[in-house]
Amino acid sequence: MYLVAFMDWYSRYVVSWALSDSLKNGFVLAALREALGSMADCGLGMPDICNSDQGSHFTSQAYVGLLEQAGIAVSMDGRGRCLDNIFTERLWRTVKYENVFLSSYQNLTEAYVGLAEYFQFYNHTRPHQSLDNRSPAAVYFDLRTDL
């Protein structure tokens, strides 16, 4: 299984995510469109920068084109520098240890349902020490209403 997520680094809020059983680019593009649509629908504004690693999904013309159309600068980690994307790497660790390793999903459907529940918990319930024990959603939406 392959998982992609778009997250607000300040609040750690997972804006969108997608799961696939193949490495075809469609699931990444769908998650990016969902993230952009979610921000537009809520009137939250678009980010200035979208950071990713240098994987083929994130260097494709389709992906870069969507970001450029939205007026978002493309930023990519340096080669072999996982710390450039530390908040996303931490998300992956958290998802694995708090959900995936405990669940033994048998197929894509099970994984999708389980991860949907987990991301709901992660965004709206799970306290984060770095956020003064608030949830990512509390910080994400408070941030946007204070602007």
Structural class: alpha+beta
Computed Rg: 15 Å
Number of helices: 6
Read across the widest sheet, the strand sequence of neighbours is 1-2
Overall 3D shape: globular
Query: Can you write the helix and strand succession as a string?
Result: EEHEHHEHHH
Largest sheet: 2 strands, antiparallel
CATH topology: Nucleotidyltransferase, domain 5
Total discrete domains: 1
Give the termini separation.
38 Å
Structure description:
The chain has 147 residues and is α+β, with helices and mostly antiparallel strands. It has six helices and four strands. It has helices at 26-41, 56-59, 61-69, 86-103, 108-124, 136-146; strands at 2-8, 13-20, 49-52, 73-76. It has a two-stranded antiparallel ribbon with strand order 1-2. A two-stranded parallel ribbon has the order 3-4. The protein is globular and about 35 Å long.
How do you describe this structure in short?
The chain is α+β, with helices and mostly antiparallel strands and 147 residues long. The protein contains 6 helices and 4 strands.
